[in-house]
Amino acid sequence: MKVTLVDAFAARPFEGNPAAVCLLEEPREDDWMRGVASELNLPATAFLHPSGDGYALRWFKSAIELELCGHGTLASSHVLWESGRLTQHQSARFTTRAGPLSACRRDGWIELDFPATPDEPAAAPPGLLDALGAAARYVGRSRLDYVVEIDGDEDTVRALQPDFARLREVKTRGVIVTTRAKSGDYDFVSRFFAPSTGLNEDSVTGSAHCCLGPLWAKRLGRTTLVGRQVSPRGGTVRIALDGDRIRLSGQALTVLRGELTLG
Q1: Is the model's pLDDT at 57 over the cut of 90?
Q2: Cα–Cα distance list, 60 to 182, 188, 196 (Å)
Q3: From residue 39, how far is each of 27, 86, 145, 198, 211 by CA, in Å?
Q4: 232 falls in which pLDDT band (50, 70, 90)?
Q5: Quick one: fold of 2-114+249-259?
Q6: Partners of 237 in beta bridges
Q7: Residue 207: alpha-carbon gap to chain centroid
Q8: Pick from 237, 150, 145: which is nearest to 192 by CA?
Q9: Which DSSP letter does residue 175 get?
Q10: Which residues contact 31 (CB under 8 A, 6 or more apart)?
């Protein structure tokens, strides 16, 4: 059984967010998928098999199944085209826990069609800002995460050193931290912290941009944006809003191909 390691939202090796992709011929047991994901110990392992006119897709982070995973979807699409399962002109269609998702190739980038997850203003929960070690201009809550617009510039976001033990106590999947970019190459920057899922910081988080896109569209008055996640690995996400959907674009490259010897 083939397994492929892909750097997603990456323009060069060892950038972006790594994901393993396992192409299956039929569904496998949940415990088996959790075991494989735990063995690989990556931010996400994607499992997909043919279903209807597309593929059923699930994502795991060790023993935790993820509800929505942008970089795992981008990596899966990349592998379907690279392996010849889909032609370069075919769209990748997925059924997932988050509903139907799709991807297409456009000008050397992979464009994902995802649901937008806009935030609503919210009071910062106890301990959140202390754990981040930063003041906030704005705090919001999406269906999945808290989002904090930092009272500072891009350098402030880059320099954050959260107290992850305290941040783990905040009841949420993750915390998105963002501010406007100082470079003309990007509209905003962000980081994503998710210690409650066993991942202190995610390198590039497609699903977080489903919230960041609507937030910065309101701030900047535009529906097309470019975000840069300024984690140590870093990655770029292009965004286009379309009603209650959002198109996220990124690049991907394969860094390893192997074979699972597990039954």
Answers
A1: yes
A2: 35, 28, 14
A3: 19, 28, 27, 15, 31
A4: very high
A5: Diaminopimelate Epimerase; Chain A, domain 1 (3.10.310)
A6: 227
A7: 5
A8: 145
A9: E
A10: none
